[in-house]
Amino acid sequence: MSIKKNIVITGGSSGIGRAIALEMAKNGHAIYIVSRSENKLEKVAKEIESAGGVAYFGCGDVANPDVVDALYNDILEKMASVDVLVANAGVGYFGNLEDMEIWQFDEQMNTNVRGVFLWIRKVLPEMKQKNSGQIIVTSSNLGLKTSARTSIYSATKHAVQAMVWCLREELRETQVKAATINPGSVSTPWFDGKDVDRERMLSATDIAKAARLIIDQDKTSDIDHILLLPAKN
Asked: Cβ(202)–Cβ(228) under 8 Å?
């Protein structure tokens, strides 16, 4: 029987975050989901409970340190500790570099990089104190390579990739683990209304199963990253 864990998932109200929450709920884990949409959070919390998990949620901007502090305090009040952090919240805007707006740069950097930094920094002291914990960051295949029309988004994913790889070195003498999941295109609400072939994409469930593999890994392994690409059709 698996040990029940306390899992925090940012960007947990839809897409990959929701899929990870529902996948982990099957084993009765306690899951705290974070996003900016309270209505969506309430809906997913009910789905988590129906799937067999224990659900909590908090609403706010992952890149705002005051909000992160308040949410973390609420997490400790409700769950006492954090065993797993899934830093999943992210945004993306695509186009040629010279066409990108400053606000698009700022929003991607704030959510995709600053938000990851703030949440990892918040959970690390407790994890290191108890010498146990798993951090997962939803990166991208674009955190390992580059592509035209993705300059700022790729830059954010390269940044969090470096952040996690440096963190792994810092955690070398501990039992705290850190990993990234690096998917190609995933069919999520991110692509709603866009002229793309979603039949050729990964599913959010594919990513959730990868997250579960990392979370459920034995003490004898320490997964670095998992690269997922769509199957060839």
From this structure: yes
